[in-house]
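Hi, here's the filled form for the chain we discussed.

Project: internal
Contact: R.S.
Residues: 159
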Amino acid sequence: MNQGKRFADQLERSFRGGAWHGLAVTEALAGVEAATAAARPVAAAHSIWEIVHHLTVWNEVPRRRLDGESLQDLPAAQDWPAVGEVSPDAWRAAQAALAGAHAALHERVLSLTDSQLEDPVAGSDPTVQGMLLGVLQHSAYHAGQIVLLRKAAAAAARP
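And the returned structure, exactly as it came back:
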């Protein structure tokens, strides 16, 4: 198995499950309803919904960088897109957008050769490999945040 396929496998594990570190992103999101996703049980923290938008961006940006775009220093509104309508349909759409962005990145990473992993990447870690390691770390970090926000929301809902 080449390294691109190994990275693609790790991307799947961090997104869908089977990750060593604990819950993957979709496992952390399983069963979260729109109201919980939009809630702000920790006042100074992002909501689960905002994190989903942010994760979508940071699955799209690495794929676009792999396709040659030089994306650097995203404005805050692009890095953390606002949540618009809060409804079950909008929540399903946000999760579908994240799944689609992940699938596109995964597919792109599957096509990488070992030598391409050492290629430079504008606006990121100096190499493709470093950028992909960052994506994995980023997903693990935010999956943990989602788990904590779910717990905080559940605690806040208790009488």
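Let me know if anything looks off before we file it.
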